[in-house]
Amino acid sequence: MAVGLAASVLPDLDLIWFYLVDNRQSVHHAYLFHWPLFWVALAGLALGAARLARIRGAAPFIAVALAALLLHLALDSIAGGIAWAAPFSDLKLNLVQVPARHGWWVWNFVLHWTFGLELAILAAAGVALWRDTRAARRPAIA
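User: That's the sequence. What structure does it adopt?
Assistant: Structure tokens below.
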């Protein structure tokens, strides 16, 4: 679980570059950390390194990390646009376009229906967590 949660935020580490170096000149989804093939290649290298180093049991952790990373990018593809074949193609895929209707760009996303989808995902996670914690408190029936 910890590996998946940590890996799921890795693509957004490019925001550090976006704000501190690039001065918000480019859309951060265009950076290397938002290239799915980068993460697939890195996972392959990690798996190869683990095998060379004879680290047993690394494959499931690498698989969970890659799944979390790709899920992040798939969710970004709903409205953000991800270049799934980068660096071989710069074609960005996204399910919907978020129109620029409001002065501050953040409101364009917050007031779009896709934000409701994100809130629904959070609510489902909250319900699942609540159920799991309730089930964990129940005494076991012998």
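Residues 113-137 form the longest helix (25 residues).
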